[in-house]
Amino acid sequence: MCVFCSIIKGDIPSKKVYEDENVLAILDISQATKGHTLVIPKKHFANILEIEYPEYENVMYAVKKVTEKINVVYKPAGFNILNNCNEAAGQTVMHFHVHVIPRYDNNDVKIEFTDHSKEYDLNQIAEDLK
Ligand code: 5GP
Ligand code: ZN
């Protein structure tokens, strides 16, 4: 059984911040910033490609609830809402979850994007993905 399924079952302790019928939100054991929370469907799905729409919508509803709560309580300057899909993207727990990471200043978390647009034909990509 995966670590989040064990947490949901109650076999591994966690710090719960939100719970409803379908979703559990817990503090990430490694706090990237104060209040870093993981929003997890109670039913096991490996990733965003596997999760079914009703469950996904339930998770995203809870993501907004958790974000609003952190916002009121800790008044961060901003948030990163993050999901890693598969090992290639840094996923380490193979049970779908969304990170809610409050941001207190520009340097507390490093998420970098480099502009590679010159290497691609954007018209073609837009056509491909339409
Ligand atoms: P991922 O890298 O898969 O997107 O994120 C997995 C997250 O789960 C990591 O940030 C890691 O700190 C967190 N995590 C792993 N094991 C546990 C645990 O047993 N309890 C809690 N609360 N978080 C965990
Ligand atoms: Zn699981």
Describe what you observe in this structure:
This protein has 130 residues and is of the alpha+beta class. It has a single domain, classed as 2-Layer Sandwich (HIT family, subunit A), CATH 3.30.428.10. Helices cover 28% and strands 19% of the residues. The chain contains three helices and five strands. The protein has helices spanning 3-9, 53-74, 122-129; strands at 16-19, 23-27, 37-41, 78-82, 98-103. A five-stranded antiparallel β-sheet has the order 1-2-3-5-4, covered by helices on one side. The chain is globular. The mean pLDDT is 97. Zinc ion binds next to helix 1.
Strand order of the largest sheet: 1-2-3-5-4
Average pLDDT, all residues: 97
Please indicate the count of domains. Answer: 1
- The whole-angstrom Rg is 16 Å
CATH architecture group name: 2-Layer Sandwich
**How many E strands?**
5
| Shape category | globular
Distance between the termini: 38 Å
Category by helix and strand content? alpha+beta
Instruction: Fill in the CATH topology.
Output: HIT family, subunit A
| Low-confidence runs | none
Strand content: 15-25%
What is the percent of helical residues? 25-40%
Ligand types: guanosine-5'-monophosphate, zinc ion
Order of helices and strands: HEEEHEEH
